[in-house]
Fold this protein.
Amino acid sequence: METLNISLGVVVTLVVVALLFDFMNGFHDAANSIATIVSTRVLKPQHAVLWAASFNFLAYFLFHLKVAATIGKGTIDPSIVDHYVIFGALIGAIAWNIITWYYGIPSSSSHALVGGLVGAAVAKAGFGSLIASGVLKIIAFIFVAPLLGFFIGGLLMVAVSWICRNMAPRKVDKHFRRFQLISAAAYSLGHGGNDAQKTVGIIWMILIAAGLSTTESEIPGWVVLACYTAMGLGTMFGGWRIVKTMGNRITKLNQARGFCANSGGAVTLFLASAFGIPVSTTHTISGAIAGVGTTRGARHVRWGVAGGIVWAWILTIPCSALMAAAAWYVGRLVL
């Protein structure tokens, strides 16, 4: 990546905007981690966000930075990255997150960021600036991640139903209230381990372009710590509009179903993070919830709601890309 003449003030501004996006990511995607334990009344909302935020941050100590490397070097040509591209990408992603949060739509902050990078890069250097293999892999997982969550969540629900077939429903609920805390913690770990790293990759790109990071093989520790902290703080504030959609409108959950949905989502996120694939936590948990719901019969899933969510998934990258392209042009005038 070419070192550019970027003032320290611009670098600081971009880092702050990146951390604002990370905060918005946690705020917007809090529903992914807490929707099931709130809707099943395992924890009060205030306690649920603290629980999720704690495990978002703990992911800092557990996950390698493979996802950050994919964002930093695997989506757009590093040689075209400058402060205008980063500015456009972040503003496009933040704008889309605000719009979808306002309307209670569970869209993907991850794909908003990818769309932002794509839009700003194309605005500057055309489609040849995209790394096709990286972008196509991320697009493929728009479908793969929710399908994995769907099948793993559904299989877990079938297994739980068989194991608990002779137990009284009240006893099952009592046990799974505790198990849900564990599954929600695991999902929050996966959320922190995958999502916070995307902003790590963005800030890393900024520092390399400005010549403030001398190597592309190591990411400064303060960057990682700051991103995980911002994500955790965002989660603590919680996006309640989206919690209602995720926890109640796709299918009705009880303690056992909530456990299976969170566990299916967590397994999917751990697998994706291990291979450095930036996936959508929103897509993953939506698929897992739908998979759990179908074990009771397809009629127990509100497919109209699910279909609306899928349309949001499809539109996220192109819409955030268009916003980012516009922001890139504005950035050229103001930065």
